Amino acid sequence: MDQSHKKNTKDIMEQSHSDSKKLSCIKNNIYLHISDKELENKLSQYVIDNGYNVIPLKEPIEFDTDHLTETHSVLLISSQFITHKTASKASSLGIPVITVSNEDTIESRIESVRNDGSYYIAQPIDKELLRSTIDKAMIPRSPHTYKILIIDDDEMLASFHEMIVRRAGMKTKIINSPLKSFTAIDEFKPDLILMDLYMPVCSGSELSRIIRQKEKYSGIPIIFLSTESDLNEQMAAMEFGGDDFLSKPVSPERLVATVSNRARRAIEANTISSDLKVIASELKTKTIDLDSALTTARSAEVLKSRLIATMSHEIRTPINGMLGILDKLINTELNPQQREFSEIVLSSTESLLSILNDTLDFSKLEAGKMTLENIEFAPVKTINQVHKLFEETASSKGINLRFENEANVPTTIYGDPVRLKQVLINLINNAIKFTDHGEITTSVSVKSNEDNHLVLLFKIIDQGVGLTINQQNSIFDEYSQAESSTSRTHGGTGLGLSICQKLSKIMGGEIGVSSNPGRGSTFWFTAKFSEHPSSSIRDTNDITIDTFPIDYSAQKPLVLIAEDNDVNQMIISSYLQKHGIASHIASNGEIAVTKKNSGHYDIIFMDCQMPVLDGYQATRIMRHQEESNDGIRTPIIAMTGNVLTGDREKCLNAGMDGYLSKPINKQKLAVLLEEFLGAENDS
C-alpha cells in the first residue's frame, strides 16, 4: 500500500472517530410528504399532540441533514410519492419510512416493499395503529442477527468498518480479495454486502454485476463504499446492482443505520417474497382443483374440443394439397360446366379449411393474436360464393336463398375476404339451421364512406323460430344456444356466433340481432374496409394479381424447394416449371444446407416446419456460412402455415427475405418471383 493511500485511510478513520463523538440529546422528528392537504393537516396535528416535531417536505428528499445525528426521525409519505430513490435517501440517513396508502390492498403492500418502505399504514387512518407504528419505527432495531460481509482490499479500513459494525451487535466477515467473494458468500450466507467500489483485479461494480447474475444471490443488498462523491459515479455503480452508496469518510452512526436498515428491509422483503411464493403455491393448488372440477363437469366437451383441435392440424396438410391441385385444374382446358363445378369445389375446400380452423381462431381471438389481410376482393362475388355453398342444403329444406345489394356498394374493396366469408358462413348456416321453410335474404349496403374508410352493413334475414329478449341478450356468449335442447335438435358447439362477434370487432365493426319469436330473426354486422390500398408495407400475403406475368426461361433460374410434404413439393415445382424455372427438392433442412453448399440457387423456398433441421435453423446456418465465406446472399422465402402475430418477425430474424403463407397461392408466389427474379429479367 503506498503512502498516499495510507494517509487517505488514516484521514478517513480520524474523521469517522470525530463524527462518532457528536452525540447529544435525542429529538423525535416526523417528516411529512402527503398528497392530500387535508390528510396532511390531520396527521400533522396528531403527531404534534403526541409530542413529535413535524417537518413538512415539499420534495421527499429535502431532509434537514444538519441535525440528523441529534434526532430520531421518521418519514411519513404518501404511496404515490414513495420511490426507490426516496427510500434509498432515507435509508442512507437512517430514517425509517412509513408508507401511507389510499387503500389497503395486496398490490399497495407489495409496491411499498418494492420501493423499500419500512412500514405501511392505509386509510382510513387508525390513530392507535399510527402511534404504535411511529413508536416502533422510532425504536432502534437490534441488529445483532444481521450478518455483514465486508469486501475491501484495504485491510486497515476494512477492519475499522468491521469494528464499527461488530460493536453495533452484527456478525461480520472480511474478505480482502474479490476473488474469494463467492466462497465467502456461500459459506457465510450474509444478509448484506459492504463493498469497496474501487479495488484492483476486480472493481466493486464489476463484482456486483457478476453477483447479480446469480439468482441465489439476488436478494442480498449491496452497499458501495468510495472516496468519490461524484453523482455520475454513484449512479453508474448503482446500475451494476448496488442498493446504496456511502461516501468515505462515513460516520459510524450513518454506517450502522444504513447497514442495519438495508439488511432489515432485505430480510423483510425476502420474507414477504417467501410468503408470496407460499400464497402463489396455494393459489396454484386451488386453481388446479378448480380446473379439475371444471374438467370433470365438462369432460365430454373437453374431449370433443381436443378432437377438433387435433383434426384441424391433421387435416390441414391434405386440404392444402387439394387446394393446390384444384387451382391447377382450373387453369387447364375445361368446358364451362367442368369449370363451374371445379370452382365450386375449390370454394368449398377453402371454406372447409376455414371452418376447420374455427376452434384455433377462437383461441387466437381470445389471445388477441388474430391478424387480418388487406387484399383486393369483390364483396358481391364473395357473398355469391357463400350462397353457392348453401344452395343444395337450403333447397333440400324448401328454403329460397336471396341476395340484395345496393347500387352504391363498390365493385372491389380492400380488406380480409376470408374473415368476411367466415362471418357470413356462420350466420347463413345458423339461419338455415333454425329455419324449416320460407326465405333467407342476405343484403349488403354502404353505411358510411368517408376518407377511404368504408363501412358496409350486412344483414341475414330468416323466417325461422326467432328469439326471445333473454335469448337475444346471451346469443353471442361462448357456448351459448337459445335453449338447452338446441344442440340436440340442431347441433353445434355454440362457438360460431361468439367467433362472429369477435371477428366483426377486429374488422372494426359490431354485430347484433333483432327478432320476434315464431316470426324469424335478422342478424346484422358491420365491418370497415377501404376502396384503395392503405398499407405501405409490401407483403405478398396482402397482394392478389390475375396472371403469372413473366416467363423466366431465358434466365434459366434454378430454385431450391425445402419442403417435407410431397404434395406441396409437386405443386410448387409444377408452378415453377410451367414458367421456365427449374427446381431441386430438399425434404428437410439438413439436405437443404448440403444442396446449397454444392450448387448455386437463385431463390430458396424454405418450409419452416421440417424434420432434422427446421427452416429457421437451416436459414441461420446458411447465413452464417455466407458471412464466413463472403458468399453471395441467396434470397430465402419462408413458407409457413402459421399466421400469428410475430411469425413474420421470427422469419426475418432468422435471416429470411420474404414470407409466403400456406396454402400456397400462385398469384402470391408470382409476386415473390417477380421481386427476386424480375430485376434480372428487366435488365
TrEMBL record:
<dbReference type="InterPro" id="IPR005467">
    <property type="entry name" value="His_kinase_dom"/>
</dbReference>
<dbReference type="GO" id="GO:0000155">
    <property type="term" value="F:phosphorelay sensor kinase activity"/>
</dbReference>
<dbReference type="Pfam" id="PF00072">
    <property type="entry name" value="Response_reg"/>
</dbReference>
<dbReference type="InterPro" id="IPR003594">
    <property type="entry name" value="HATPase_dom"/>
</dbReference>
<protein>
    <recommendedName>
        <fullName>Histidine kinase</fullName>
    </recommendedName>
</protein>
<feature type="domain" description="Response regulatory">
    <location>
        <begin position="147"/>
        <end position="263"/>
    </location>
</feature>
<dbReference type="InterPro" id="IPR011006">
    <property type="entry name" value="CheY-like_superfamily"/>
</dbReference>
<keyword id="KW-0597">Phosphoprotein</keyword>
<dbReference type="InterPro" id="IPR036890">
    <property type="entry name" value="HATPase_C_sf"/>
</dbReference>
<feature type="domain" description="Histidine kinase">
    <location>
        <begin position="310"/>
        <end position="531"/>
    </location>
</feature>
<dbReference type="InterPro" id="IPR003661">
    <property type="entry name" value="HisK_dim/P_dom"/>
</dbReference>
<feature type="domain" description="Response regulatory">
    <location>
        <begin position="558"/>
        <end position="677"/>
    </location>
</feature>
<dbReference type="InterPro" id="IPR036097">
    <property type="entry name" value="HisK_dim/P_sf"/>
</dbReference>
<dbReference type="InterPro" id="IPR001789">
    <property type="entry name" value="Sig_transdc_resp-reg_receiver"/>
</dbReference>
<dbReference type="Pfam" id="PF02518">
    <property type="entry name" value="HATPase_c"/>
</dbReference>
<dbReference type="Pfam" id="PF00512">
    <property type="entry name" value="HisKA"/>
</dbReference>
<keyword id="KW-0902">Two-component regulatory system</keyword>
<dbReference type="InterPro" id="IPR004358">
    <property type="entry name" value="Sig_transdc_His_kin-like_C"/>
</dbReference>
